[in-house]
Amino acid sequence: MKYTLEIPDQEAEFVLEFLRRVTSVKLTPIRGKAAKQDTTEYLLSNPANARELMESIAQARRGEVVNHDLLSAE
User: Which Gene3D superfamilies does this one have (predicted)?
Assistant: First the structure.
């Protein structure tokens, strides 16, 4: 059975996270040709990337971050 959901922007992340946790639900984004996919949406479109990204966000919220100096001349 297929459904189309229209979700307000402020609720989208909550609803998507809920649906990702329901193992019997398959999420297939529907994109119009004119719609541009942002970087986060692209990363979340792959289940392995989504898990890594969500874990990284959780680590950052716990204060577990590593700072890198990308401009160091070593």
Answer: 6.10.250.330
pLDDT one-digit tens code per residue, 8-39 = 888 888 888 888 888 788 877 766 555 566 78
Of 32, 30, 33, 41, nearest to 5 (Cα)? 30
What's this model's pTM, rounded to 2 decimal places? Answer: 0.40
- CA gap 40, 27 in Å, rounded: 16
- How many Å from the N-terminal Cα to the C-terminal Cα in the chain? 57
pLDDT for the residue numbered 37:
67
Q: Which pairs count as long-range contacts for 62-68, CB under 8 Å and 24+ apart, including other chains?
A: none
